[in-house]
Specification:
351 residues; Rossmann fold; Dehydroquinate synthase-like, alpha domain; 4-stranded parallel β-sheet; two-stranded antiparallel sheet; 13 helices; disordered C terminus; binds nicotinamide-adenine-dinucleotide
Length: 351
């Protein structure tokens, strides 16, 4: 059963904009569970559907070309509405296709994962990966309607994907609310999430994006955990053992918190609290010199870098960050030495 507010907002938009055609872009898993989710819309517009294989491998220029070709063969015009129904992969890919097909068609995201509800579905960053380089090609393009989230969709989400969304949720707590972090610390399981936790993240991201829509400065705070996180994601993908985005981000949060502490920003007691919390909910991997070297190579390719320095958002204290901290790559091994904390388990899959 579709969420009433989502259907109502779409119908209102279609009537207002005189929309004739709507195309749902989704992936195989979401299609298996929710094939009829938007069936009510067919009373108002002609509905079509494109189903792509699930997983990050579909977030590619090759898939984008296939979708452009499909839309062109069906002669869909510039008033055709693209409805991205899925996780962050579908939202990023669909946003990219919508922003480029015929120089832009209207679209909205209807996120189906926790991660997409609190992060990927908001903010207008669209894109595809270039082989192992995450989000290397993309656009800024804002959805024509920001739909409400339907948390009922999370009931079918696999546990590992739930944990992945939790990784991004922890990021919001650390950059924006000590109170939320303390609430998260009280959870026995990451599945005990409350709707107000999601509301905080969605509100925080919307407010940040509103102030800095094109990612010039303030928005960089949202990158906390992502410099390491994207590199870890790329390294696992290279080894043929892909890891969910938010799980890689949780590792990134661990190491960027350590970096913040090592560089004298984050107080030791807060670093230890963060480390303990992350180890309770995530498997934190060890960085050998060899792995750190490989990660550094990926980090040197990060879009945020300037002048050969690696760009990080660091924590000042829980709830406060310093964006755009530059570190020369040759310094990385020194600052990542795990020192005061217990050594985390080995990254066996990558050795
Ligand atoms: N644009 C942004 O601002 C932004 C922010 C964060 C992440 N991202 C991107 O988001 C992507 C990761 O998103 P994700 O974690 O949602 O991954 P995903 O979209 O690949 O979905 C994860 C898995 O869950 C399945 N799934 C989705 N919804 C389901 C449901 N309701 N029930 C059962 N299964 C379901 C999918 O088929 C897939 O197998 C990455 O590409 C990342 O770069 C983008």
């Amino acid at each position: 059963m579709a969420n009433r507010d989502i259907i109502r907002q779409l119908l209102e938009h279609f009537r207002r904009e005189n929309t004739r055609n709507a195309v749902v872009l989704t992936d195989e898993n979401v299609e298996r569970y929710y094939s009829g989710y938007f069936s009510e819309l067919s009373g108002c517009v002609s509905m079509d559907k494109i189903v792509v294989p699930a997983g990050e491998c579909s977030k590619s220029i090759e898939t984008a070309i296939e979708i452009w070709q499909y839309l062109a063969e069906k002669q869909y015009d510039r008033n055709t509405f693209l409805l991205n129904f899925g996780g962050g992969m579908v939202c990023d890919l669909g946003g990219f296709v919508a922003s480029t097909y015929k120089r832009g068609i209207p679209f909205a995201n209807c996120p189906t994962t926790l991660l997409a509800m609190i992060d990927a579905g908001i903010g207008g960053k669209t894109g595809v990966d270039l082989k192992l380089l995450k989000n290397a090609v993309g656009t800024f393009c804002f959805p024509d309607i920001q739909l409400p989230v339907d948390i009922e969709l999370l009931q079918t989400l696999p546990e590992e994907e739930f944990r992945s969304g939790f990784g991004e949720l922890v990021k919001y707590a650390l950059i924006g609310s000590k109170e939320l972090f303390q609430d998260l610390c009280k959870l026995e399981s990451f599945k005990e999430l409350k709707p107000e936790f999601l509301d905080f993240c969605i509100g925080f991201k919307q407010k940040t994006v509103k102030e800095d829509p094109f990612d010039h400065n303030l928005r960089h705070i949202l990158n906390f955990g992502h410099t390491f996180g994207h590199a870890i994601e790329s390294l696992f993908a290279e080894k043929g053992n892909p890891v969910a985005h938010g799980i890689a981000v949780a590792q990134g949060i661990y190491y960027e918190s350590l970096l913040s502490y090592r560089l004298g920003h984050l107080p030791q007691d807060e670093w230890l609290q963060i480390a303990e919390f992350l180890k309770k909910h995530f498997h934190i991997v060890t960085l050998s010199t060899d792995i750190l070297g490989k990660l550094t190579n990926f980090m040197l390719n990060d879009k945020k870098n300037r002048n050969g320095m690696i760009n990080f958002t660091l924590l000042e204290r829980i709830g406060h960050t310093t964006p755009d901290f530059q570190i020369p790559s040759f310094d990385m091994s020194g600052v990542c030495n795990t020192g005061v904390c217990n050594t985390p388990p080995t990254m066996s899959q990558c050795q």
